[in-house]
Each structure stands twice: as structure tokens, then as C-alpha cells.
Write a structure and sequence with these properties.
Layout: H1 12-17, E1 21-25, H2 30-42, E2 48-53, H3 61-69, H4 75-81, E3 89-93, H5 105-114, E4 117-120, H6 131-151, E5 157-161, E6 172-173, H7 184-193, H8 196-207, H9 213-227, E7 234-239, E8 241-243, H10 260-268, E9 274-276, E10 285-287, H11 288-304, E11 311-314, H12 324-338, E12 351-353, H13 356-380, H14 387-405, E13 410-411, H15 414-421, H16 425-430, H17 440-455, H18 463-501
Parallel strand pairs: 1-2, 1-4, 2-3, 4-5, 5-7, 6-13, 7-11, 8-10, 9-12
Helix pairs in contact: 2-11, 6-7, 6-9, 10-12, 12-17
């Protein structure tokens, strides 16, 4: 659809992207998909998007590309521009974690001749990834992408997607480079020639007080990009915790259950009933459509203003804050009264605990004991046990969550705010970069509804049955609690009070 100009102001981003060839890594990931959809819809006259993509699970890059475009995320784009518009995206076979990116000589020559803009989004975001895998993808992969960028004859901007949570020793993060926790080049060499077993033994020593390989390797990868600021047109974006879509094209859409969405689903299913966390604390969140808009706008900002800004903290807590307790309360209200999930294991409940000891006791009583009991019943009935496996995954997730939930970081984004002021009214509307007017209850309602549809595959026609089941589980929950209280009262009467009066 043609862009609607506000007060005659043109969309300078759309004009700048016209006729450009873009190279994207990580295009099959969450942010990559949203970025590609937005580029095609907001800048329809781009020449081409080349997506680096590998074979996976027996599927060729072309087959994987077709699967991506068959998804609901691209329905709005196809409705506006036709199904053939996605043909502007072509696959380039390769792998960021492989030597020389596993790109053929012919494709490398093609990329070096045609590409003008690079979005390097590929990364492993698993916090428990082995050091070797994390380094090969997040660090060596970034180095190889920079090597490729040096060969690109018409390169105008190279956008590196980092994270606001990669410099964890900095309690206040500014929009500037920071020294890496180790030499990226030395770490790459170690991981190339050392075995997984040897690396596993030295990982704690290498990480030091950094809690996981994700933060460690993202800091190293960012440092490599910073080192090239005098040689290449590089830009670094540091988004905080990326949430599902806020506004467009599908409110609430996501393709994963990482972050708060996973916690809301786990609590909504009744399997998460305790967390060690200061409920009054807060983290920094940014919806993926806002982050992607910043990626697009930053490329124009860099080129138009000749590199005045090179690092953008894509964060929100300087403007908007929502506590963990508020998120949980909103989520509980939604799954109890608006959009219950199918087949909940127990009525949603529980709370956040400020005491780790209290949390551990509750985890044992409300997570492990019921899981052992149900799995024992399943084994007796001839089925495979499932709940203890689920609880092990939850426990592993808690280890990651608790570090971030019980520490506090703040982010300064004055340069990003200044860049936002330079956008005209048309651009501010089309590439929304602020959260003005966000209704958290409506937003998380959309998140849970989208998770039902696209992650859990629970359709809307199943909602009446889910509501009935939720009412049943409410009755079961109250009955069990009443019986437990009566049992305690009986024991107190029999063993404490009765002997006194007889």
C-alpha cells in the first residue's frame, strides 16, 4: 500500500531503501522473520533480500524459506502486495557457525558485487549452550561476517545485533563501546582446536563472574564489531529482552516461548507455582516490532547523518517500567478470566518469593512432590512419565531467570532518543519507536492468545471447554486446600490439644 504522508512529510527510510540489495543472517529466527516482513511491507521497492540459510532436518534452504513465508506472519504482506512479493527474498546457502560461512565461491562473489546493506542477526540465544558452539556462532561467525563485509564493494552499512545484557558488570549501560571480558581472537583459536570435553572443564574459569556463555560470547562478538568502527560502516544495536509483537502485523505473535511469554504459559498451565524473585524489581523489555523498526531506522540515521551515532541501546526502562509482580498479576488475571489454556495441570496460583530458602521449600512441595506422584501413577497405568522431565526443564530455566531477576541494570539511550527526534511525523508513525499508549493488559492478552494459536496450537473454538476445565480445577484446588487445612487441624487437635484436656 502507498505510504500515507502526514502533513506532506515523505518517508525518507522507504526512499533510501529503494533499489537496495540487503543481506540478512539469522533471517529464520524470531527477529529475523519480523525484520524481513517489515522491510518488504514498509519498503516495497527494495531490490532484493538475500538470506543466509543452511540445510536443516533434511530440508533445503529453499524449502525452509517457503515454510517461513507460508506462516501467518506474512499474511498481511501478501494481502497488500500479492503473494509474489516475497519472491524478492532469495536464499543463499551457508552457515554462520561454519568455516568461511560455508558459502560457495560463486555466491561469495555475487554477494560482494551486489550487497549494500547487511543485517547480522544470527546468534545462538541459548543460555546453556556449550562454549564451543556459542563461540563458533556468536564470535567467530561475527568475525567471518566482518571479513566478508570488507570484500563488499558497495557496502553502505553493516548492522550488528548485540544485546543490552552482554556487559553484565556494568550496572548502568551507556551507548558506547566496552572492553571485552577476554580477547575474542584468542578465545576463537582455543575453541577451534580444543575438544568439547577440555573446553567444558575450563569454561567456568573463562567465564569468571559472567553467568552464561550467551552473555560472554555476545560481548566478544560486539567487541569485534567495535574494533572495525574506523574501517567499516558498522552500527551496533543492543535490544533488551525482546517480547512478542505489540502492534503489527499480528499483535502478540511470536514463534518461541522464551522470556516472560514462557513464564506466563507455565504459570497458566499450573506447572509453575513459585519463583525466587523480588516482585518489586523490573527488567527491560522491548516488543520485537519496536526493535525491528529501530534496526531499519538506524541504517538511515547512520548514512544520512554520516555516522554521528554508532551504538543504539534499544531499551525502554528509562521511559516505562513494569515490575515482575505486575506482569504475573496481569497474566494470572488473563488466564483465569479471559483466555484460559487447554488442559491445565492445576489451577493457576503461587507467588514470587523474596527468600530463596522459602522458594526452594515451595519448589519441593508444589513442583517436585506432585510431579513424582503423577509420574508414579502414569508408570502404574503403563504410560511414560512426563512431569519430572518438565520440572527439570523448569528448574534449569529458573537458574537463568533468577540471576537476571535478582539483579538490576539500567540503560541510558540518550543518543537513540535524539535520533528519534529527527524523524518526521510520517516516519514516526510508520516506524514506531516508543511505547506511548501501551495497555499492558491488552498487550499480554494478545501475547497469550497468540501463544495459544501459534505455539500451543489451541484454537479459539476450544476456549469454552478450557473455561469449563478451569472452573473444575478451581473446585479441585479449593477442595484439596480445604482437606489439607482440615487434616492439619485434626492433627493439631489429636496430638496437641486432646492430650491437654484428657
Amino acid at each position: 500500500m502507498p505510504t500515507e504522508y502526514i502533513d506532506g512529510h515523505p518517508d525518507r527510510c522507504e526512499e533510501w531503501f529503494e533499489g537496495k540489495t540487503i543481506f540478512i543472517t539469522g533471517g529464520s529466527g524470531f527477529m529475523g522473520k519480523v525484520l524481513i516482513e517489515k522491510l518488504l511491507r514498509a519498503c516495497p521497492k527494495i531490490k532484493k533480500i538475500i538470506m543466509l540459510i543452511r540445510d536443516k532436518k533434511g530440508k533445503t534452504p529453499e524449502q525452509r524459506l517457503k515454510e517461513i513465508f507460508d506462516g501467518p506472519l506474512f499474511d498481511k504482506l501478501k494481502a497488500e502486495y500479492g503473494a509474489d512479493h516475497v519472491k524478492k527474498v532469495v536464499a543463499c546457502k551457508g552457515d554462520v557457525a561454519a568455516e568461511e560461512l560455508a558459502i560457495s565461491k560463486e555466491d561469495r562473489a555475487w554477494l560482494c558485487e551486489e550487497v549494500q546493506i547487511v543485517f547480522h542477526c544470527a546468534a545462538t540465544i541459548r543460555f546453556d549452550e556449550t562454549l564451543k558452539k556459542a563461540v563458533l556462532l556468536n564470535v567467530r561467525g561475527t568475525k567471518l561476517m566482518l571479513d566478508l563485509a570488507r570484500e563488499m564493494k558497495n557496502l553502505m552499512v553493516f548492522v550488528h545485533l548485540s544485546t543490552a545484557y552482554c556487559h553484565l558488570n556494568e550496572r548502568v549501560l551507556y551507548e558506547k563501546p566496552y572492553p571485552p571480558p577476554a580477547s575474542p581472537h584468542h578465545v576463537i583459536k582455543c575453541c577451534e582446536w580444543m575438544s568439547e570435553e577440555v573446553l567444558e572443564t575450563i569454561t567456568p574459569k573463562l567465564l569468571g563472574n559472567i553467568p552464561n556463555t550467551y552473555a560472554f560470547t555476545k560481548a566478544l562478538g560486539e567487541a569485534l564489531v567495535c574494533d572495525e568502527m574506523d574501517n567499516l560502516p558498522v552500527v551496533i544495536l543492543r535490544p533488551s529482552i525482546v517480547l512478542p509483537i505489540w502492534l503489527e502485523p499480528i499483535p502478540g505473535w511470536t514463534d518461541n516461548i522464551n522470556g516472560p511469554t514462557g513464564l506466563l504459559i507455565g504459570a497458566g498451565k499450573g506447572v509453575i507455582r513459585t519463583m525466587w524473585c523480588n516482585g518489586d524489581g523490573y527488567a527491560d523489555y522491548v516488543p520485537v516490532d519496536i526493535a525491528v523498526n529501530c534496526m531499519i531506522a538506524s541504517t538511515y540515521d547512520y548514512v544520512h547523518f554520516k555516522g554521528v551515532r554508532r551504538i543504539y541501546n534499544v531499551t525502554s526502562s528509562a521511559e516505562y517500567k513494569i515490575s515482575y509482580e505486575e506482569i504475573i498479576e496481569i497474566g494470572r488475571k488473563i488466564v483465569e478470566t479471559k483466555i484460559p489454556l487447554n488442559g491445565v495441570a492445576w489451577y493457576p496460583g503461587g507467588s514470587m518469593k523474596k527468600s530463596k530458602l522459602y522458594h526452594n521449600i515451595c519448589f519441593f512441595l508444589y513442583h517436585l512432590v506432585p510431579a513424582l506422584f503423577v509420574d508414579a501413577l502414569l508408570i502404574l497405568l503403563g504410560y511414560k512419565p512426563v512431569l519430572m522431565r518438565v520440572q527439570r526443564r523448569i528448574s534449569k530455566g529458573f537458574e537463568v531467570f533468577e540471576y537476571y531477576a535478582n539483579n538490576q541494570w539500567d540503560f541510558h539511550n540518550e543518543d537513540s532518543m535524539e535520533a528519534r527526534k529527527l524523524m518526521n511525523p510520517t516516519e514516526k508513525k510508520k516506524y514506531r519507536l516508543d511505547g506511548d499508549g501501551i495497555d499492558y493488559e491488552e498487550y499480554f492478552t494478545n501475547c497469550i492468545h497468540a501463544a495459544r494459536l501459534y505455539i500451543l496450537k489451541e484454537t479459539d473454538d476450544q476456549l469454552p471447554a478450557a473455561r469449563r476445565h478451569m472452573k473444575v480445577m478451581w473446585c479441585v484446588d479449593k477442595f484439596c486446600k480445604t482437606m489439607i487445612i482440615c487434616g492439619f487441624m485434626y492433627l493439631i487437635y489429636k496430638y496437641l490439644l486432646l492430650p491437654i484436656f484428657t
